[in-house]
Amino acid sequence: MSGPHDPNAPQNDPGQVPPTAPPPYQAAPEPPASDAPGSDDRNIAMLTHLSGLLFSIVMPLVVWLINKDNPGKAYLNAQAKEALNFQITVLIAFVVSFILTFVLIGALLMPLVGLANLILCIVAAVKTANGEDFRYPFTLRLIN
């Protein structure tokens, strides 16, 4: 039996703090909400920009109409709207170029409009695939 004067009994050092219980469990703090678009949104935005090469305003319009009222899809909504505005601008430029073919200058403008469409759609697709915002230059912003 160990008593208060037992030499084998554990001794408390006067400077030693008695052991304390571990702190209660605390959940890890949640990471801050990120405004960065998810990979699905980036991929759909990229395809929306590229689809303008084949489908003109159809695919950007469909993507925008599906996502315009969804606050969680702000990036996708903005990029679909941008692609739609650009394709509307390209369509107007093609119509004007066609009308101007009767004065010969339209024959020069149509290939330039097509080339600009190709280059800018590819640049937009690359930028949106990386999650960056892209704004087309020389675009009529008809859809706000």
UniProtKB/TrEMBL annotation:
The question of whether Membrane is a record keyword is answered with yes
Give compartment(s). Answer: Membrane
Residues annotated as transmembrane: 44-67, 88-110
Xref: InterPro entries: MamF_MmsF
- Broad class of where this protein is predominantly found: membrane
Q: Which UniProt keywords apply?
A: Membrane, Transmembrane, Transmembrane helix
The biased composition feature labelled Pro residues covers 16-34
What's the protein's topology in the membrane? Multi-pass membrane protein
Region labeled Disordered — which residues?
1-41
Q: What is this protein called?
A: DUF4870 domain-containing protein
